[in-house]
Write a structure and sequence with these properties.
Elements: H1 3-13, E1 17-19, E2 28-29, E3 35-36, E4 38-40, H2 48-63, H3 68-85, H4 87-103
Antiparallel strand pairs: 1-4, 2-3
Helix pairs in contact: 1-4, 2-3, 3-4
Protein name: Insulinase family protein
Length: 114
């Protein structure tokens, strides 16, 4: 399946993409302080609830004084677990990896076996 379609469907399903539907709805303020009619919250590709949970865990790891290499391994484990537990999240990541591979030469295999 086309990576763009997979990711767009996932963003819509997880409320990672919002579009202002009328002037009665609030506008979205971008970090540049400019208002806009839509926003992307790409972290929601993991799922709206999972994204918050994952980010909280990552934040706690980064607050710790553990060595960076151990923090990196812990963060990778959290993300890998989230990907493996959610088939739609995994399909989104697989679509991104497949697209990257199709655009690049000599890319080693990175996909984990479920």
């Amino acid at each position: 399946m086309d990576a763009s379609k997979v990711l767009l469907e996932r963003l819509i399903a997880t409320k990672g993409l919002a579009v202002r539907s009328s002037s009665k709805h609030d506008i979205y303020w971008y970090t540049s302080s400019i208002p806009g009619p839509f926003y992307f919250n790409t972290q929601n590709i993991a799922g709206e609830h999972a994204a918050g949970h994952i980010l909280e865990k990552i934040t706690n790891i980064l607050k710790d004084t553990t060595a960076r290499d151990l923090q990196t391994k812990a963060i990778a484990a959290i993300i890998n677990q989230a990907v493996m537990e959610d088939p739609l999240y995994r399909a989104s990541i697989d679509a991104l990896v497949d697209y990257y591979r199709s655009q690049s030469n000599n890319v080693p295999s990175m996909r984990a076996n479920p």
